Amino acid sequence: LLTAISIERCVSILCPSTHHPQCLSAVVCALLWALSVAVIAAVTSLCLFHEHEPCRMALISMYLLNFLIFAPPMVISSTIYFIKVLCSSQQHQPRRLYIAIFLSILFFLIFALPLSIWNFLQQFSYSLVSSQVVFLLASINSSINPFIYFLVGSCRRHCSLMSLQVTFQRVFEE
């Protein structure tokens, strides 16, 4: 979903005058989900019903797909968006929402990507760090987004504690 959000945001910033179909987001998300489900189904069937080597090759392919299909568009489109916002002369930008999405992607790269890299390296019997470290990072990634939304939504000019519902509403209003 982060990939779909990043691509949609980048397209809307780069081509603001072009009218995008309203179903563009749904189509992009559906395609990404379909690709994910197909890959997981293929890997699962190969690993359940075949010997070690076909399973290993399927896992390597899945990790490469993750690095080549899902992560790069997210990073590239977020970078383009970041540059466009910095160079924009408009006064009113949805800064809190931008900060929330940017932090979500940044923390995804910091906390979730190491697990994918570690799993990929495990297929070659190579490990830089222990499994506990990468699983801890992945766990942090799974739980960090609500905190990002809360902090970004509650810090305007001064940080104050607000109800979670009001915080989420303020973040997503922009």
TrEMBL record:
Keywords: G-protein coupled receptor, Membrane, Receptor, Transducer, Transmembrane, Transmembrane helix
TM helices/strands, residue ranges: 23-43, 63-85, 97-121, 133-152
Record flagged with keyword Transport: no
Subcellular location: Membrane
Organism of provenance: Calypte anna
Classification via SUPFAM superfamilies: Family A G protein-coupled receptor-like
G-protein coupled receptors family 1 profile domain location: 1-149
GO molecular function: G protein-coupled receptor activity
InterPro entries the UniProt entry points to: GPCR_Rhodpsn_7TM, MRGPCRFAMILY
The protein, known as: Mas-related G-protein coupled receptor member H
One annotated Gene Ontology cellular component of this protein: plasma membrane
Membrane topology qualifier: Multi-pass membrane protein
